[in-house]
Amino acid sequence: MGLLVTSYLVLTNMGTSAKPFKTQVFTALDAWLYTCKLMVIGAIMEYGWILKMKNSSASTKNKTVQKKIVR
User: Fold this and answer.
1) Model pTM?
2) Which of 22, 28, 60, 71 has the most CB atoms at less than 10 Å from its CB?
3) Is 6 strand, coil or helix?
4) What is the pLDDT of residues 35-47, one digit of tens each?
């Protein structure tokens, strides 16, 4: 997770330092940086989804074990 956040921050820094001049057009560099940012954000969301699925399956197993103990 830390590596994904660091990657996003590096891309953000690259985007702000790569444009020393104010331009009104959308360049290929902008497209590349935004694509990379979307990929990193997608990976962060996928990681969160995997954690959610892992936690929900662990809690279901715990509930099943607790029911067996009570009976």
Assistant:
1) 0.70
2) 60
3) helix
4) 999 999 999 999 9
